[in-house]
Amino acid sequence: TLPASEFRCLSPEDAVSVFEIEREAFISVSGDCPLHLDEIRHFLNLCPELSLGWFEEGRLVAFIIGSLWDQDRLSQAALTLHKPRGTAVHIHVLAVHRTFRQQGKGSILMWRYLQYLRCLPFARRALLMCEDFLVPFYQKCGFEVLGPCEVTVGELAFIEMQHPVRGHAFMRRNSG
Questions:
Q1: pLDDT category, 93, cuts 50, 70, 90?
Q2: Which of 35, 50, 106, 168 is deepest in the core (most CB within 10 A)?
Q3: Would 173 be classed as within a structural domain?
Q4: Exposure b/e, 112-149, CB count within 10 A at least 16 = b
Q5: Domain total for the chain?
Q6: Which residues are catalytic?
């Protein structure tokens, strides 16, 4: 039997399930997806360790996809690049399957993801960009507003936010 609830990094094999949830979640709101299927596959091949999926009875119900970034603020290039020497985790997308929304799963998944990032020695902070209406959600998750984001997608403008991750805490705690 499958575990009732499981959190794990995503693999390229999860790309279609990820895209189906993302497409439904974003097209109804903004008319576009943060990541298209080929971009999802791209990030899940390059940096699967920066993704996290929530599975219930083997079915993906929510996910986060991230990549590394090496600058203080996000730029248009951050939408498609993974900078392996970066210390900022750029959270590209968090989405919850429609039948599991309004149950707190997005907040729980973000909390789990941030806890996971604390164990990665290279991660110093998490960055994301979101529309104005999502700022309160991310503030409740511990993110602070950096200001308007340089990145635009069509006519959409975004707010850039960050959360300190404090990498190396795990290593300091467990060193002689």
A1: very high
A2: 50
A3: no
A4: ebbebbbebeebbbbbbbbeeebeeebeebebeebeeb
A5: 1
A6: 67, 81, 92, 94, 138
